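Predict structure. Chain length: 265.
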Amino acid sequence: MDVLSVKALLITALIFVPIERLFALRPSQKVLRRAFLNDLVYAVFNGAPITLGLIAVITFATSWMGWLVPAFVGMTVSSQPIWLQVVEIILIADIAFYFAHRTFHAIPFLWHFHAIHHSIEELDWLAGHRIHPVDQILTKGASFIPVYLLGYSNEAIGLFAFIFHAHALLLHANVRLNLGPLRWLIASPQFHHWHHANERAAYDKNFAGQLSIIDVIFGTMHLPGKTVPERYGVDDPVPSNYIEQLAYPFVPKGKTNETPSTSDA
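Prediction complete.
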């Protein structure tokens, strides 16, 4: 992890820790909660393999499928105002993310990677970093590949990447945020906390990363009033430390393990 990344992490902490203290969803939850150090390891060491993996996946996909998109499409798309490009990218990327995310819940082999993220039992801004590199590379790759294929400008993609990252941290944060009617359009912490709920009514719900309306359209929205989950996590036997969690998806599972659709999601 380079110096700039360390500074970015420190700045993020200086922003989110006070916000979580002032607008806490669960005021009794400590800053140095259980698994804090484990999630800090993810924040420090996950960046490099994920970045390299994304570059490889996007480069391969665009070189293989680039012929599908005529050159004039990219010229037209990149000539639009930056703000309009970003709006379009958010929509395109989140539709792709929705289906990739849903696939990770539906296929048992992929679920074993995604279960690492769902093993979080106390949500906050740092917990959002706990995600297996394979999971992040494939889901983010699914989001970015159509964006690069269509020829959006690097400036617009960079701005979207910043918005996506900041929004992801907010979704996992220990904050109470009322979006009113906008909660049916934009993903909120309450929306995503329900995705992490270890409660049967919430299994396989709220897959979108930024636009909750996608879940509304596909019938996977679960947002019961102003309530929040009683507990998070999964019943899968996910280990508690970084190294073992990285290895977990590759360890043979017993026959008693169920798919997320019938057990945990």
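Summary: The longest helix spans residues 82-106.
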